[in-house]
Design brief:
This protein is mainly alpha-helical. The chain has helices at 2-28, 53-65, 70-75, 77-86, 90-102, 109-118, 122-134, 136-140, 143-151, 153-177, and strands spanning 34-36, 44-46. Strand 1 (34-36) and strand 2 form a beta hairpin.
Length: 178
């Protein structure tokens, strides 16, 4: 009788541990779902957290095409840059970096400078620094600048240092020309 109780107890413990393990697995994979399409369609839905679905579709399209299409990269530049950095796709990262750098806007300079730092994109960082140096007033009037001043003092300090370096460089060039 005692042996049977131990066996039943052991079986219950294994079932409980199995349920706990499956709950942990479900919790760990809850953000990353893949499910079969309806009625034998054979399609799968894969969610990539942190990126819009259009950008993920463009990313997958570009991966399968194995070449950067300018229109697609221009439409989803910052998101493709982040995805290419996260999944280590060098050629797509360079194309997205060039596309984002080509479309410079003073209002988004701070945001793109932060993205360049997160995605390790030196050409984008240099282009945004040049833009910030050229049009400092527009950059300081942007929402990104106000947000950086309130919430990210390291980014604000980096941007101020870039602006100061640009000012010193202009003065040095002016002295060299004179």
């Amino acid at each position: 009788m005692e042996a049977r109780r131990r066996k039943d107890s052991k079986k219950r413990d294994e079932e409980t541990n199995g349920e706990i393990d499956s709950k942990k697995k479900r919790r760990a994979w809850s953000g990353c779902t893949a499910r079969r399409g309806g009625r034998g369609g054979g399609g799968y839905a894969v969610r990539v957290l942190g990126a819009p679905s259009d950008a993920v579709l463009a990313f997958l399209h570009l991966l399968y095409a194995a070449r950067a299409e300018a229109a697609v990269v221009a439409a989803h530049g910052p998101q493709l840059l982040a995805l290419a950095h996260a999944y280590r796709v060098g050629w797509l990262k360079r194309a997205a970096e060039a596309s984002v750098s080509a479309r410079l806007a003073p209002g988004a300079a701070v945001d793109m400078l932060k993205l360049a730092g997160l995605c390790d994109a030196p050409r984008l960082r240099a282009a945004r620094a040049r833009l910030a140096a050229r049009d400092r007033a527009a950059v300081e009037a942007s929402d990104g600048w106000r947000f950086a001043r309130r919430h990210d003092p390291a980014l604000e300090l980096e941007l101020l240092q870039l602006l100061e370096d640009a000012r010193r460089r202009r003065e040095r060039w002016a002295r060299a020309r004179a």
